[in-house]
Amino acid sequence: MSADNATVAVSGPRLVSLEVRGFRAFGTEARTLRLDAPLVVVHAGNSQGKTSLAEAIEFLNSGLSSRRDMLGGSKAEYHDSLRNAHLPATDTDVYVAAVIRDAAGVTHEVRRELLCDFGQGTECDSRLLIDGVEADNLDQVGFPLADPPVRAPVLLQHTLRHVLSTEPKQRVGYFKALLSLTDLDRFRERVRAARGRVEAEQPGSALRQVGTLAGTPAAFTGDTIAALLKKPITAEAATTAVDNAFLDAGNVVLGRRGDADGFARIVDLDELSPVLAAALEDERERAFPLSAFTVSPTSDQLLTPPDLEPYRVALTGVDQHTAQHTAVFEAVLAIDEYATLSHPTDCPVCGIDDALTPDRLAALREHLRRTQSLTDTARSMTDVLADARRDLDQLAAAATRTAPTAARWSEEQLTLATDGLHDLGLDPTLAADAHARANDLTQAVTAVTTAAAAARGAVEHASDAIAGRHPVNDDDLNSGYEALAAALAHLKTVRTSYTETAMALRAAVDAATRDRTAPSGLREVADLLHHRAELIAEVVTEATRQQIIRRLNTADKALGTAAGAVLDTRFTQMSDTITKWWTTIRPDELVGFGGIKRRAGGTLFVNLVADLRIDMLSTPVTREALGVYSDSQLNALGLSIFLARTELLGACVVVLDDPIPGSDSDHRLTFVQDTLAELLNAGVQVIVTTFDGKLAEWAYASHGSSSNGLSYRLDLIDVIAGPESTQTADAFGQLMLEAQESLNSPTAKGRRLACTTLRSAAERLAKQIIATGQTHAGTAMSVADVKSKNLGDLLPRVLPLVVGGNAEQGHWKLFPKVLNPGSHDDDVPPSTELKQTAKNLRKIAKAHQNHWPGGLLQ
After folding, report:
1. Is the C-alpha dihedral spanning 341, 344, 345, 346 positive or negative?
2. pLDDT(180) > 80
3. pLDDT for residue 357 is more than 50
4. CB-based contacts of 100: which residues, under 8 Å, 6+ apart?
């Protein structure tokens, strides 16, 4: 439908304007394009920046460039490909900004800044701002992203041909992305990843240890435990089952099958563990007498001399001579008949007649009262010394147990032991070294018991002194304990050396007996029983893990089947949509599009089918499209696939970069009249960039108008500044572009042409200002209504309307003086004067464009 017949309205969000700086071809100057129309056509020659403009819109939407993922080559070839190559190294102001009007009619300022370009070991990184607030995407303003690799509704040449050049296996991913079916695949991938993680988990160490029972009489226990893992099991049930398995395994390896063999079957795990340990020790002893090298552990507690200071203090408070008789006085007064004595009697101690009188007994009691504190302290110290004797006796006994029995071996016993090591394939010196260390340990034990006995003698002497209320000699006591401490320290050192040697011997014998003797299962069952709690927990965990793996396998299979069914349904839908767009580009052709199909019903390969007919009524012959389509047909197919995607995803804006190649000019008109019309009638805002002047002209003529279309031309005049955009309806802009080409001409003829064109541009700008000023003053006027032709006649009318003050008036007055001579036969101005004049004209045009509401009339 032509714009002449109906006004096309964009129903959804739209791009109102776009500003680009420093991105790809766009350089140091920020370039702005007004896009507020259903159709925007941008015409530019090759390498003038039109594709950079389309990629800028893609970058604004997605923050990425799809060319790296779809065009091919290595990633290194795209390093530093987004930032303009001519920007100074310190210039980091690279951005694409836009004004977007959402579906509710509210406008938003959107800006995406390039923070990091593609580089060695780095990905592209950007920051998106919506109304000054950072955001992750443009969903909130109505521009949602699609699935990769084509996330933005921007058709670029690498997008157009990617699906056709890629392998069928890779093509399925592209179509799933187009159909928004990647969620199903991602879910299936997550299911597979979860299964992989669960499968990668190893059973617990205790559960793996069950494998050590293989080759032993208890090998059947492995099958018993494995059976528990086939379905979920509770901790209570696992405990019962594992305990029963242990009892069965333990009785088998112990040879206890019931009363018939003379040994009762063990039915309690508490009984099983010590029986296994004893049997295992017997097994080791038969191979080598390790018990002879076993030593009992000793305490490392250091004994200190008893503190008798309270006794010495108490003793100084009484007469020592008298105090020594306290025991005698206590013995006399302990006799019952003296307790109530009322008359003198013979003394039982001295034998003097009538020497023990009531008064004398009273004196004895008074003496005991005065020495009661000493008596109490003496009794307390007696208890302390008794504890010291007990500690010394216990220490000596423990030290004696430290000496291994191997130290008392005869030469014959040592020879038998070394021969036993030789039979086990071990170095006989292991036994000789352990025996030598055992002798050292025995000597150290003897030194400790001797020192303990000496210390005990000192304690006994101190106890006797206290009993007789004599002073205590601390020197003997302290020296005895010091000697004991030294002996204990030496014992500790010798015991450490011996333990290392004995442990090496035990480890060697354990390993040898494990390898050389037939596996009885005793050791394996005992070790496993030690980890009973862990095994029970791991059985429950492993049973659950196996169930999860089975469920994930079932889910993966079901998802695969479902994915195929969904693909078929969506492929049918998309095939119809692609066919619709195909017929807008290439109607009434005998070579048509036959659809998208999965190869052999699988989900890994997708084929594109072509329908070949003899005439429009004949039954088509199907072939692979890639094998029979011409280059222009393949291009049309890629365009149709892209447009089908935008329709299925409900895109509100579509950007088409060179949608019809020069080799397919025959279908330029059908694209303009049918394809563009279909998009515009669907309410889609369409932005077309093309090198084809006719396509640009026809598209704008067919669908564009003052309200429905905008048409631009891009020209890369200054590589550093970047492409300049000019509306094709802007006569002033077109004249300025024409003049630009001759400003630097080295010939007078070229600069004369620039003078003439700049004068025409100045006259056009003056007419626009006059028409705009009159219209805003209340007298409606178009640019064509301004009849004056030359600049001299226009100056009096334009000077009252200047917005730049005296500076602008001066520029206007100077324009004729600079440009008129060069337009006739006088001397032509140099390039510098022409460039300054062009700069002033652009500055004035920009000032008036911003000053008048709605801009200058065109």
Report:
1. positive
2. no
3. yes
4. 13, 14, 15, 16, 107, 108, 110, 138, 141, 142, 143
Local structure of 776: helix, strand or coil: helix
Backbone angles phi, psi at 23, to 5 degrees: -100, 120
Residue 266 CA, chain-centre distance (Å), reads: 54
For tokens 């100056």, name the residue: 795
Determine the average pLDDT of the residues in 625-641.
79
Q: How many residues does the chain have?
A: 858
**pLDDT computed for residue 702 by the predictor:** 86
Question: Angle at the Cα of 500 (from 498 to 505), degrees rounded to 5?
Answer: 95
- Residue keyed to tokens 């299964």: 195
Angle (CA) 141-142-148 rounded to 5° is 115
Is the distance from CB of 74 to CB of 114 less than 8 angstroms? no
Q: Which residues of 133-171 are buried (b: 16+ CB within 10 A; e: fewer)?
A: eeeeebeebbbebbbebbbbbbbbbbbbbbbbebeeeeb
Residue 551, token pair as written in the block: 């469920």
Position 68 scores a pLDDT of: 80
Single out the residue of 530, 525, 515 nearest to residue 256, CA to CA.
525
DSSP β-ladder status, 591-598 and 606-612: antiparallel
**Residue matched to tokens 């766009």:** 26
C-beta pairs of 417-423 under 8 Å, 24+ apart in sequence: 417/288, 417/289, 417/292, 420/287, 420/288, 420/289, 421/288, 421/508, 421/509
Q: DSSP for 124-186?
A: -EEEEEETTEEES-BGGGTB---SSS--SSEE-HHHHHHHHHS-HHHHHHHHHHHTT-HHHHH
Mean model confidence pLDDT for the chain? 83
The segment with the largest mean pLDDT, out of 270-279, 491-500, 764-773, is 764-773
| Residue with the two structure tokens 């469920």 | 551
Q: What is the DSSP string of 575-641?
A: HHHHHHHHHHHSTT-SEEEEEEEEGGG-SS-EEEEEEE-SSTTSPPEEEEHHHH--HHHHHHHHHHH
State residue 810's pLDDT score. 92
Asked if the model's pLDDT at residue 706 lies above 60, the reply is no
What's the token pair of residue 815? 């324009």
| 0.85 surpassed by pTM | no
Distance CA 661, CA 636 (A): 10
Residue with tokens 């003899």: 614
* Three-state DSSP class for residue 110: strand
Rounded mean pLDDT of 156-161?
73
Strand-by-strand arrangement of the 621-624 sheet: 591-598, 606-612, 621-624
CA distance 858 to 851: 15
List of residues 6+ apart from 6 with CB closer than 8 A: none
544-579 pLDDT per residue, tens: 999 999 999 988 888 877 777 776 777 777 788 888
253, two tokens: 């390896």
Q: How many CB atoms lie within 10 A of CB 633?
A: 21
| Strand ranges in 22-77 using DSSP code E only, listed in sequence order | 31-34, 39-44
Q: Which residues are 130's β-sheet partners?
A: 110, 133
Report which of residues 604 and 387 the model is more confident about.
387
pLDDT of residue 828 exceeding 90: no
Task: Give the pLDDT score at 65.
Answer: 86
d(CA 295, CA 298): 9
Q: With a cut of 50, say whether residue 10 has pLDDT above it.
A: no
The pairs formed by 491-497 with CB atoms below 8 angstroms and a separation of 24 or more are: 491/298, 491/399, 491/402, 491/441, 491/444, 491/445, 491/447, 491/448, 492/300, 494/437, 494/440, 494/441, 494/443, 494/444, 495/295, 495/298, 495/402, 495/441, 495/444, 497/437, 497/440
Residue 1's pLDDT is 34
Confidence of residue 52 (pLDDT cuts 50, 70, 90): very high
Structure tokens at 819: 């440009």
pLDDT digits 0-9 by tens, 467-504: 877 888 888 889 999 999 999 889 888 888 888 888 88
